[in-house]
Amino acid sequence: MSGISSAFPKQQKYLDSPTNLAYTIMSLELNFIDRLKFHLVHNRKTQLTVGTALFLLNVIWLGPFLNAGKVSPLYYLLFPFVLSLFQFTSTPLLRGLGIYRYYSHFLLGYLPGKSKQELHTGTSFDYFLHLKWSDRGVKSRDYIFGELIQGLLNLIKEVEEGRLPLELNIVATSYFFSNRSLEKLGFRQTSATLFNRLNVLLNFLDIFWMYSFSRNKLVFPNLLKVKKIEILAGELLEEKETLKQIKRRFEQKRNRLDLPLTDNSDEVHGKI
Q: What residue segments make up the domains of the chain, in order of their start?
């Protein structure tokens, strides 16, 4: 006890009862978690270290699950939960390896290439990093939307600097944006392919809880309304002023958010 008291003299008054001691320890743990979250966003070495550890844990428990499935196929009914857990724990490693390329906290490119870039609106792990349970509802919805807009602006910046070609085809599967918003941003809608719909179906559990989190109630997203959208990088560049206007409107709401919008792409790429 004396060691704790001397290390944290200002918290001495909280050590007088078991309840206050537990609260103090919990606060210290939360501070550690916040620091870990910071490094998981900004530091590639941390992403690779934590990601590798989580990957090895996945390998350990995935083997028994597959063996159990051979004994009783009913175990495979748990596959959506297994996939959800696997995607959550694999995000740090995929980010550290560059397979996930983040343009903002909630906009990432999967397997970035020179001819095609597939965008996604973040993973369940990103919800853990950047949002709290108290953020559910409008607060998280505004924050995520603002990050999507900032991510598109960061992508445009790379196009302007010549790091991405004008003819790059940017594609995504959308259930977050309305048709009106997509038209404002210059995106074209095309029919979702069987692969797009199958991918959404396999990830339905994550989509369900993340969508419900942003609505602050249990909501089952309509898979029939899933849209495949696309735009060329050069066309997105032409929408820069529109995106900046949308961003300015969202910045007026930033006082209600705990975290600011990401100002530049370097911050989310882990270049520290």
A: 99-272
